[in-house]
Amino acid sequence: MGAEAGLEYSRCLYRITLDRKLEVQQLASVLSDEKFYSSIIALGRIGIERAQLIEKLAALDNDVIEWREYVAAHCDFMSALSGENAKACNARLNFNRSYQ
After folding, report:
1. Count of domains in the chain?
2. Which of 18, 44, 47, 50 stands the most exposed, by the fewest C-beta atoms within 10 Å?
3. Nearest C-alpha neighbor of 67 from the set 26, 28, 97, 42
4. Source organism's superkingdom (predicted)?
5. Which domain holds residue 87?
């Protein structure tokens, strides 16, 4: 009894590790995030403006303070590293966020 907590903890660490691995791989180029940018292009083809989509994704409400703190720190880092716009960074992270 109680062994489930250890399994859940290990699963959580594993998921976070995979997420961070993908992030580190993407740091070389912000434009390497093909899913995000391909989706924006596809939605643009059906009439959704890029700026409007970025605005909506960046404004997604999230009550998890750790996520908000992470996004702020990551986007500050990406801005310093590559000049990525903070709103676009926030939108990209919200788009890519793993809910698994």
Report:
1. 1
2. 47
3. 97
4. Bacteria
5. 3-96
